[in-house]
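Quick start: read one record
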Amino acid sequence: MIRVLSGVVLAAAALAAIFFLPPLGLRILVCAIAALAAHEYLRLVGSNDSAIGGVVIFTWVVSTGSVVTLAMVPAVVVLLAGLNALYTKFSSPVAVLGAFAIAYISVPLGLLAALHIQRGWRATVLLIATVVVSDSLQFYTGRMFGRRPLAPSISPKKTVEGAIGGAIAGTIFMVIAGPYVLPTTPPAMLALLGLTMVLLGIAGDLFESRLKREANVKDSSSLIPGHGGVLDRIDALLFVIPAFALAVGVVQ
C-alpha cells in the first residue's frame, strides 16, 4: 500500500511539474533532483558530497541546450577526476567515479529541462511514458514468461523474456505516440528510436544495479517510501534522455 501511495504522489507531482511549472521553476526543480541523485550516487561509489555543487551548476548550464556545453563534458570530468585524486584521500577509481557524476547525472537532467523548455510538455511526456511502458511490460512479461536471467550477477530478477516484452511494448508505443511530437519522422525511424530508448533504459537500470551490488545495498536511499531513492526512480531515464534529446534536436 505504501508503495502504491508513494507512486501515486510521485506521478501526480511529476505531471504537475510538467504541465504547470514555468521554465525557471523547472530548471530549479531539475537541479534539486540532480543534487539528490548525486548525493545517492556519490555514496554508492564511496565518495562524499564535495561534487554536488558542480553537478548542480553543470545541470543548470546544460539545460540551455548548448552543444558547446556538452562538448566540455569530457574535459570537465577529467579535470574533476584529477582534482579529486590530487586533493582528496580517495583512491584513483573513486576519484574518477566521483567526477563521472557530471556525465551521469548533470547531462541527462540538464537535457531533460532543455527538452521541456524547447519542445514542450508533449515531448517530455512521450519520453517518460515510453520508459514507463517499457519498464512495466518488462516486469509483467518477466513475471509471466521469464525463464532465462538477463544479467544474473547484477540483477537476478531481470529476464531475457522480460526485456523482449519491454522492447516490443516500448517500440510499439513510440510508433503510435511518436507522431504527436515528431510528425515528419517515418514509422521505421520511430520504431528504431523506441527500441534504442528501451535498450538504453535497460542498460541504465543494470548500471545502477551494479553500483548498488558493489556497495552492498538494496536501494540508493530510503527517501521515497516503498521505492528507494531518487536514483532508483530515474536510473533508466538517465541513459535514455541524451539519446531522445539528440533525436528531437534539442542540442543546438
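The longest strand covers residues 155-159.
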